[in-house]
């Protein structure tokens, strides 16, 4: 929007996905936004405009604070209020940032617990914490393959 001024963020970046699948019949567009409640009024207006256009919202938060990050959880509450069930996903990123010994100790797991098992326990714990507050699908993402 040329009428809006100010620094924009590497803001509304689009990725359009198309393919021979029924679910992508009309295409799918991803829009990367900085969050809402931004102190920069231009970015905040853009975020709110794009949010109103969305049929589906995917909210991402770093794994270590996915169950406590106020900004992400506020977005989640807003999406749960505004969108139909099933049109929201909550994604905990950087799930590969894990300290196996800490997870074993905090969850009273056997000392033989593998890195993959510790990651799975921790992932399920965070998913459960978020789902206690909101009935949404919660996903965890990792750049690390623990199955190897």
Q: Which architecture name does CATH use?
A: 3-Layer(aba) Sandwich
- Give the N-terminus to C-terminus distance in angstroms: 47 Å
Counting DSSP H or I runs of 4 or more residues, the number of helices is: 4
The H-and-E topology, N to C, reads as EEHEHEHHE
Number of domains: 1
Low-confidence runs: none
Report the strand count.
5
Strand content: 15-25%
Largest sheet: 3 strands, parallel
> C-alpha Rg, in Å?
18 Å
- The SS-based structural class is alpha/beta
Organism: Alexandrium andersonii
Protein name: G domain-containing protein
Quick take:
The chain is of the alpha/beta class and 148 residues long. The chain is built from four helices and five strands.
Question: Topology, pairings included?
Answer:
Elements: E1 13-17, E2 28-32, H1 41-53, E3 57-62, H2 70-82, E4 88-93, H3 100-106, H4 115-133, E5 137-140
Description:
The protein is 35% helix and 18% strand. It has 148 residues and is an alpha/beta fold. It has a single domain, classed as Rossmann fold (3-Layer(aba) Sandwich), CATH 3.40.50. Helix 2 links the parallel strand 3 and strand 4. InterPro entries: P-loop_NTPase. It comes from Alexandrium andersonii.
């Amino acid at each position: 929007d040329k009428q809006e001024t100010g620094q924009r963020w590497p803001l509304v970046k689009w990725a359009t996905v198309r393919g021979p699948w029924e679910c992508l019949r009309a295409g799918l567009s991803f829009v990367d936004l900085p969050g809402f409640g931004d102190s920069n009024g231009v970015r905040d207006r853009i975020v709110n405009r794009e949010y109103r256009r969305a049929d589906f919202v995917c909210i991402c938060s770093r794994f270590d604070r996915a169950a406590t990050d106020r900004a992400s959880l506020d977005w989640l509450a807003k999406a749960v209020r505004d969108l139909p069930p099933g049109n929201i996903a909550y994604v905990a990123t950087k799930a590969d940032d894990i300290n196996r010994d800490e997870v074993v100790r905090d969850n009273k797991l056997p000392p033989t617990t593998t890195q993959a098992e510790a990651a799975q326990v921790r992932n399920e714990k965070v998913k459960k914490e978020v789902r206690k507050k909101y009935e949404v699908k919660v996903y965890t993402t990792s750049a690390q393959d623990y199955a190897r």
